[in-house]
Design a protein that fits this description.
The chain is of the alpha/beta class and 289 residues long. It has 14 helices and seven strands. The protein is globular. Bound molecules: fe (ii) ion.
Length: 289
């Protein structure tokens, strides 16, 4: 994120806040069928893997029209629960635009859906990742408040040039977070729950580390965008994540972190509260190929 990016104007056809019409009527039958296929595949395996709040929140996606949710109807359901709405954008938006939407309880989502050849991986988030992955938890009052707090924190962090560190908090929670559920671990990160392979890997595979969440530790931890994660951080609860985010004074924390070296994604520290020390066999195989 830099000033040039902040000043980048929206593309032609988008509003000043970068939103565009979803054009639900313009989706092809094959695109709705792709949504249904992905939806079925994920709900079949997530029942005892995802945090109960996610499974409850899936109800907001079950709306009158079949296939890809109509954002107008979806927003109507969601706003009655937590005041959040969902709007379409043409692709990735500048950080400031993204944060401002979150701070105003709007989640911006891609409108396109992946092609059959991309069912397991695509480089840019599509409507399945954005809506199936993110929206159910926006129906949870505590997680909904955390997302707004993150947006507000993001706007403040821009003054400190600390976006990279704040992005790590989002990555290791909103996208790839695990949460305790009694003695078990459950999935809640959108990047995991929208991925068939990672929904299994993140909980069952011996390869990745699973480490108790620590805000400072997470903000020092680099991450991989092109493979399954090498470390997952486990929060105690959404309440605890929200409390830590609201109670942390980020300005001194950013200054403190400037003096702390970044950590490689597979690092385990002596001070970590380790739930599972990963074998990193998946990571080693990926590095050799
Ligand atoms: Fe995402």
């Amino acid at each position: 994120m830099n000033e040039t990016e902040a000043a980048r104007p929206p593309p032609q056809g988008a509003a000043a806040d970068w939103t565009i019409p979803q054009d639900w009527a313009g989706y092809l039958p094959a695109e709705h069928a792709m949504w249904d296929r992905l939806f079925r595949r994920q709900t079949e395996i997530l029942g005892d893997r995802a945090v109960p709040a996610f499974m409850t929140g899936l109800d907001v996606l079950r709306i009158a029209k079949p296939g890809i949710p109509d954002f107008v109807e979806l927003s109507d359901h969601l706003s009655k629960r937590t005041g959040w709405t969902v709007k379409a954008v043409p692709g990735l938006v500048p950080d400031e635009v993204f944060f401002r939407h979150l701070a105003n309880r709007t989640f911006v989502a891609g409108r396109f859906i992946r092609k059959p050849g991309q069912i397991d991986y695509l480089p840019e988030p599509d409507v399945f990742h954005d809506v199936f992955g993110h929206v159910p938890l926006l129906a949870d009052p505590v997680f909904a408040d955390f997302m707004q707090a993150y947006g507000e924190g993001g706007l403040r962090s821009m003054e400190f040039g600390a976006l990279e560190r704040l992005a790590r908090l989002y990555w290791y929670t909103v996208e790839f977070g695990l949460v305790r559920d009694g003695a078990a671990l459950k999935l809640y990160g959108a990047g995991i729950v929208s991925s068939h392979g990672e929904s299994i890997f993140a909980l069952d595979d011996p390869s990745p580390n699973r480490i108790s969440f620590d805000l400072r530790r997470v903000m020092r931890s680099r991450y991989r965008i092109d493979d399954y994660q090498r470390t997952y951080f486990v929060i105690d609860s959404f309440e605890d994540l929200l409390r830590q985010t609201l109670e942390t004074d980020f300005a001194p924390l950013y200054r403190e972190l400037e003096a702390s070296p970044d950590l490689a994604p597979e690092t385990v520290l002596d001070t970590d509260r380790i739930i599972h020390r990963g074998t990193q066999t998946h990571a080693s195989a990926a590095d050799e190929s």
